[in-house]
Amino acid sequence: MTTAAEKVQARITGTGSYLPEKILTNADLEKIVDTNDEWIVSRTGMKERRIASDDETNSYMGTEAAKVALKEASLSVDDIDLILFATVTPDYMFPSTACLVQKNLKATNAAAFDMQATCSGYIYALATAKAYIESGLYRNILVIASDKLSSFIDYSDRSTCILFGDGAASCVVSGSGKGLLISNAALGADGSLSDIIKVPAGGSRKPASIETVEAKEHYIKMEGREVYKHAVRRMEAASLESLRQVGITESDISYLIPHQANLRIIEGLAKRFQIGKEKVYVTIHKYGNTSASSCGIALHELMNEKKLDLGKRILLVAFGSGLTWGASVLTVTDK
Ligand SMILES: CC(C)(COP(=O)(O)OP(=O)(O)OC[C@H]1O[C@@H](n2cnc3c(N)ncnc32)[C@H](O)[C@@H]1OP(=O)(O)O)[C@@H](O)C(=O)NCCC(=O)NCCS
């Protein structure tokens, strides 16, 4: 019988990311739509974002990020029992992008499936991996959160095309080893607000037709102000709930990694929590909003830049279409 002392605790043992080489700057956008660098920087904090080429499919980006995470975790692909791929921009409606990664990596021992939680995808996937590991169903899970949103952007719509970029994040979640304990995961959703940011057509409800293409319904449509308002509220509530679940306060957090949707949202959140600027990890100026991968890319960069002592804590928090939101406390562990 397993005693409480032997309880398996899920932890991240390696992280990875992949960013396409091609950079789309604010100056580039000025040539495409009626906008300017000053407006974009002051309203969003974004200076440039990465755009994947035709060959850099979502499955390719996810595979490359996964290779880095596997190497960091010192695991072979044969050790992986499950591949979990969080995305809103799968290569195909089906098969899953997780299966394409399984093929690319030759991870023949792994089950594979996609999950969809929009920009909260990385945290939802961490929560799912944690549950699988702690139930004893799997030993090593490859989590990937990756999006190629440039395929769903109307580059004549200045209210959305400035915001998004492409990129992938990955991590290995296991039941033992040094890394970052997934101390908790506080998830939430509100489907009654599903209309404020969505891609209206292309699903089974409204399949592709000449009319949907002409009406540009395969692109992201967003009520920016509404989304902004809910983002601030939900990320604050999810963060508070996360701290409560772990039994700590904001002063116990070494780094805050928020979803990189808008610098004003990030700064507002940090202010409400009285977390100093130096503790807030920001990548938005370089990559824009990369959807599911945004927290994961930032986490990978943070882990490679800073040496975090044992017991230090990172708070991840994200928000996205659905609506969905989630927050998770990660704690540095050496065993
Ligand atoms: C999109 C966002 C940056 C817009 O900023 P805002 O301050 O709310 O701006 P508004 O949408 O009210 O637009 C203000 C004006 O700027 C204009 N504008 C919009 N986009 C512009 C652009 N790229 N360049 C210049 N002007 C622009 C609008 O047309 C409007 O002009 P008007 O006053 O003449 O009508 C902001 O609402 C936001 O970040 N929302 C959240 C988006 C988000 O997080 N999405 C992802 C969730 S995961």
Gist?
This protein is an alpha+beta fold.
Labels describing this entry:
alpha+beta, Peroxisomal Thiolase, Chain A, domain 1, two-stranded antiparallel sheet, binds coenzyme A, 335 residues, 2 domains, single chain
- Helix-strand category: alpha+beta
Termini separation comes to: 22 Å
CATH topology of the largest domain: Peroxisomal Thiolase, Chain A, domain 1
Tell me the overall shape. globular
Order of helices and strands: EEHHEHEHEHEHEEEEHEHEHHHEE
Number of domains: 2
Mean pLDDT: 96
CA-atom Rg in angstroms: 19 Å
What are the distinct ligands in this entry? coenzyme A
Helix segment count? 11
**Could you estimate the helical fraction of the residues in percent?**
25-40%
What is the level 1 CATH name of the largest domain?
A: Alpha Beta
- The CATH architecture name of the largest domain reads 3-Layer(aba) Sandwich
- Strand % is 15-25%
Low-confidence segments, ≥5 residues, pLDDT <50? none
| Sheet with the most strands, sense and barrel status | 10 strands, mixed
Total strands = 14
- Look at the structure and name the CATH superfamily of the largest domain: Thiolase/Chalcone synthase
